[in-house]
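Risk register update: the risk that structure generation would not scale has been downgraded. Supporting records follow, first protein first.
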Amino acid sequence: MKAIICVLVVSFMLLLSLNAQVYQQVANSGTINWQDQIIRSTGIGAPNPKMPLAAQRAGALEAAKRVALRNILETVKGMSINSETTVENAMIASDVINTQVSGIVRNFKVAATRYMSTGDVEVDVEIPLSGILMDALLPGQQGGVMMPGQNFPIDPSFLPQQSGVFTGLIIDARGTGLRPAIAPRVLDEQGNEVYGSGYVSREYAVQIGVVGYEKDVNRARTNERVTDSPLIINGIKAAGTNRTDVVITNPDAQMVIAAAKNLNFMEQCKVMIILD
């Protein structure tokens, strides 16, 4: 009885852990864990009865890896780069990106292998989103553009009271239908860009992403990305064809801009977005 209870408790805790992750399912090809920045897919291979019995398992394993490769490539293609472009769009438009992404995906890591009683073999494969894949997919220009607020008016009353306070930014976008992306933007109500890939250091963006995603505000508050004193505001709606840009109120945009004038949290990608 105690053993059964232990199994149930472990299963319940595992379920809670999975529900806490920001997962995106891409058709039937695989999943993207945006929170941990891991892309994973599964492949299944069947033994070839025409092969010698001793070689059938190895053949099934190689077949499973080929299927997994196809699936993980389709999963990567299904990601949004920004509010208008998917990875598939970018690969079609650029032979360079197509070659880079295809090569990166081929270097997948086998995370788990399962040998079935039927002789079939299942493999789970994964690749990191951060690092070389992020480098290949991020827009070319990182940083070096005007700071937010230089292209539209700032209320001076926000500047003295907000400067030198915040260590990061958390935007609670639950209820807006916002979707994750490689290079999302934060916009004010007029569509002015308050934060995006043009304001960040490419080094930081490649290693940790332009933003981090979470499902719980309290967990986000303790995330090393934004601690110790993040500014927390609400998103009011999602924007763009892919619904990956988050819109915030003009007063909140003013606060973000005021804080950014004296702090480097934007450049260091110290921004998190809370999703449903």
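Supporting record for the second protein:
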Amino acid sequence: MKKAFLTKEMVERIAKDYPTPFHIYDEAGIRKNARNLKEAFSWNKGFKEFFAVKATPNPYLLQILKEEGCGADCSSMSELYLSEAVGLGKGDIMFSSNETPSGEFTKAKSLGAYINLDDITHIDFLNNECGVPDTVCMRYNPGGIYELENGIMDNPGDAKYGNTKEQMIEGYRKLKSLGVKDFGIHSFLVSNTIAEDYYPTLARTLFTLAVELKEKTGAHIKFINLSGGIGIPYRPDDEPVDIFKVGESVRRVYEEVLVPAGMDDVAIFTELGRFMMGPYGALVVKAIHEKHIYKEYIGVDACAVNLMRPAMYGAYHHITVLGKENEPADHKYDVVGSLCENNDKFAIDRMLPKIEIGDYLYIHDTGAHGFAMGYNYNGKLKSAELLLKEDGTVKMIRRAETAADYFRTFDFDDLMKPYL
């Protein structure tokens, strides 16, 4: 059974100051999870987690993770600005972009970020723009189908990201000729898996590649970035990943492959977003309408603007009707938003307790790729983001958008001035 970190009484108090809908994050849960990850990989002296900023781009949350020893994984100029704003500097930022616009490598280099090149042609692009730094990482794509013991996980051969093995070898040689002293390897092959053998299987792939790159190019490999991909249990019957078991499995592969090759100084990096933040965020909404036609509908005061994953991917997010946790789930509903799109549904044919107008619904696991994927279709406005602090108080960490915010980019048009 999935348990909410808020009660109905807590939401009723919060809603007096911050009306629904709102995203809210659990500081205590975030900190505990970050500490568990760090402990699970404590066997590696250079271990560092670079939180995937795209998952939850909020400086207050980045600050919490910074305090827990995490860095930031960025893929755009704005994400670099966010990381800079919270004081992350040299060695704290991984810049993993693709089809990178001019100027972004320059900014990343100025911050002392590790630059991760998605394509071999980016070597010249980087060198011509700002010169190559002393340390450069390259992203690897093994191609084909990626399989684990329990079956096919993904198809890297169809992904636009990364370099082939031959390009990795050629790229390392070229970067060495340009003065690069230390190298990194990065790869992201699977998204949102709760298979505990993913990381150790990926580690074996990358560790083996590292040994080959060292032998063929003489490069000193400073770090290997296992990137993200570790998922969370969205459904009540899913088992959460045991991060301690994963860390121990990666350690065994490290000692089997890298240590005999004299590469026991290689740091392990991770780049997790969903695992770090997903379970520690929720979207709280209120039931405002009900409709009885060919199906039973509950309309809420949020929509896909607030949480796009169900509409975009058909993704499952568990729903708790606050105050009715112990009541039987004997009513079948589609829980829907107000967009003029039929896929604007948080749940389809979901068995829930009887919902009354005014009930609060807690939508689980929105802490990553929740608010971040929001948009303004239909002129809908994004909600506030709140932080449930460790002492039980609530802090607003992003205010709700207003119509003035929505119209702000029309500042050249006198027609919109009354709304600004």
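The chain has two domains: 27-277, 279-410. On this basis the risk owner (M.S.) recommends closing the item.
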